[in-house]
Amino acid sequence: MTTHMIEAGRPATKLKSEALQVLLERGLVHQCTDLETLDRNLAAGPVTAYAGFDATAASLHVGHLMPLMTMRWLQKLGHRPILLLGGGTSRVGDPSFRNEARPLLGDEQIAANISGIRHSVERLIDFRGEDGALLVDNADWLTEFRFLEFLRDFGSQFTVNRMMTFDSVKSRLEAQMPLTVLEFCYMMLQAVDFLELSRRHACTLQIGGSDQWGNIINGVELARKGDGKQLFGLTVPLITTASGAKMGKTAAGAVWLHPEHLSPFGFWQFWRNTADADVPRFLRLFTELPMTEVLRLSELQGAELNEAKKILATQVTAIVHGAEEARNAREQGDRLFAGEEELAAPTHRLDLQHLADGLGLLQLVVHVGFATSTSDAWRLVEGGGVRLNGRVVEDPRRRIAVGDLAAEDQLTLAVGRRRKALVAFD
To answer: What is the pTM of this model?
Structure first.
């Protein structure tokens, strides 16, 4: 099997399909199992592609936007997306690049999480009509397998030797962290997912993060051995910010896509506070602006770059929350940054348990997007730039307590004159 690593954003040969041209131009391709053959298939007619998301939380976060934007572009260019929700695999847990096993979830929690994820993706992908995208749950087939039948049909297709070479496994073993048989079997289950989607929905392409490469290859190989079919895998790059932080993660949690977990204005603020160095790349990856406009905005410097940040924030918010919410967020941001408006509704929500766990001020500053790291937040506090409930905080080690909450269990946090957040604790 030929594999291609895309390093410079351009393929080695001239492409025939508009889909791959756009994905490469946007920087959405990291690695592909057979670029030339996939290109021919995409040029010949509609291809069905899937991306999978485990139901380990009640919302997806901005770190999931890379595969989601890839699927969105494929759909815009005439191909059919499948969003696979892991109602089955969520009962096991994916060990990829984690230092410890995920806690196992009950059926009720998984069902609730799936409902929230559905809401997270409804605006990004069009599920309407007979040719619309499909939303599929892998519990539909994984829960039907009997253990001995599964071993008989698939066990001989996987070798422990190969699994031991995957980074997701090696990193755990090298750190002397336990790796259970349940987690070890996850990669088998994901391979079976690809095979089942191929059989049920003629799906031939899997989209995933670069950390999923080994699991994707397993699915491609399983279909080749079992059904004699050629399937394809394509990974998106792992995105880190200019500070080196993993995209979508903060010290206090993820930047959620679901409006009940992060308000559209809080989401807009996250993108408005993008580091200068990240603006050109994020405009390319996370908006649908024409590349000519992306290049124009990417050349702005100094104070003009703030306008590019507002455009970035508004464009991404429109994709995730809709055009009206994006306009409202932009208008609220303009008034707030001009010092003309106080916040009337919460921009961020956190569980009260965070207070019991000892939520630090620095964590909160990072969580709302006013700093990219706790060290950055520390410098803001030391410079006298952070206000909690209107008062300057002088101690970077300050903890948030129940006594800091005003009416409706809320508090205000501000950095400078232009960045404000109203945080509600539920």
So the answer is: 0.80
